[in-house]
Design goal:
- The chain has one domain.
- With about 325 residues, it is an all-alpha fold.
- It has a two-stranded antiparallel ribbon with strand order 1-2.
- The longest helix has about 30 residues.
- The radius of gyration is 20 Å and the shape is globular.
- It has 14 helices and 2 strands; from the N terminus they run H-H-H-H-H-H-H-H-H-H-H-E-E-H-H-H.
């Protein structure tokens, strides 16, 4: 984990794994067609994994940039964090796809591999739309957004570091307003491909990363309050989630903001809950590979199959973390 805040003084690793499980659980409910009580579904939906990941990335990257000697070193660390595990997961995904599915074409498959292994994870060729749920690993669309943020975060840091809270609040208002206005504009235009491409840009989600960076910048002032009132913040987030009174641009503004603040406060309030091994990235990488295989085999509509799917995903994530992840950590520390 990046940042000057180590795992010894927070339980952010637990929050990340919980967020990864929420993403996996949501996809399993949808694609494995699992029966679930509406109340339980609401509880799991309240804890949205993607905005949590985005905000925590902003929070942790703020510290990482402060410790990086140059932009090049910073980018090298980001590269090591994302790509080695991604490429191995992609290799496993392609091997399974080729074995289980026979509708692929060599040209489109190679283009798909290039897209998945770079920054175009949102793209799936038509020849692969018949595989599993319709895309081999659609969950990876967030990687492209994360990489865009990593590229610009250095300059955001240089621009906003040391600025007062009024400047930061204005920045948050502007970043969300731009996201909201552009989203409505592209929807109004009515060209689907334009709206879809906009949904893959950092512009739409930058405000979430910004919230995390905001908290990191004013950590000394904010964290004591968040630690003390984390449960109040989570209740407020639940109220916005329940009454559906919010502003939406990619994700809900008030619900997401209070949820993120409450979870960060919880993580620093209970550092003893920290997990030594964070397999959240592996869960994110592998869960749709497993889900697609289960759909191909027809192993759906049953929680026994779901439990097996979870076990396979966690197993792959653990192996990935303990091998490639450990290797990456050693190389990052040497940069």
């Amino acid at each position: 984990m990046d940042g000057q805040s180590s795992r010894q003084d927070n339980a952010l690793s637990l929050i990340r794994i919980m967020a990864a499980f929420q993403v996996m659980f949501g996809h399993m409910l949808e694609h494995l067609d699992l029966p679930i009580d509406s109340t339980l579904y609401g509880i799991t939906y309240y804890f949205r994994g993607v905005p949590i990941f985005f905000a925590l990335s902003g929070f942790l990257i703020w510290f990482s940039i402060g410790r990086s000697k140059s932009y090049g070193i910073y980018l090298k660390k980001r590269f090591l964090r994302i790509y080695p595990e991604l490429w191995v997961a992609l290799l496993i995904e392609i091997i399974i796809l080729v074995i289980l599915y026979h509708g692929w074409e060599i040209k489109s498959l190679l283009l798909f591999v290039f897209a998945q292994g770079t920054i175009f994870q949102f793209w799936t060729p038509s020849s692969l739309r018949g595989y599993g749920v319709g895309t081999p690993n659609g969950a990876l669309w967030t990687i492209g957004v994360m990489i865009q943020f990593y590229v610009i975060a250095w300059f955001v840091y240089k621009l906003f570091k040391g600025k007062n809270n009024r400047v930061w609040i204005m920045g948050l208002i502007i970043s969300f307003a731009v996201s909201w206005v552009l989203g409505m504009a592209f929807d109004h235009i009515g060209i689907e491909i334009v709206s879809k491409l906009y949904s893959q840009t950092i512009i739409k989600y930058f405000w979430l990363f910004y919230i995390g960076a905001f908290i990191a910048e004013f950590k000394e002032k904010m964290l004591p309050m968040f630690q003390k009132y984390w449960w109040v913040l989570l209740i407020i987030a639940a109220v916005f989630f329940w009454i559906q009174f919010d502003i939406y641009s990619g994700y809900h503004l008030f619900w997401s903001t209070f949820l993120i603040a409450g979870l960060i406060g919880f993580a620093y309030r209970f550092p003893q809950l920290q997990l030594e091994t964070d397999i959240s990235y592996g869960i994110f990488l592998y869960h749709m590979t497993a889900v697609n295989a289960f759909v191909i085999f027809g192993w759906i509509k049953n929680w026994v199959w779901a439990a097996l799917c979870i076990c396979i995903t966690v197993g792959l994530a653990w192996v990935s973390t303990m091998t490639i992840g450990v290797w990456v950590t050693k190389h990052k520390n040497g940069v």
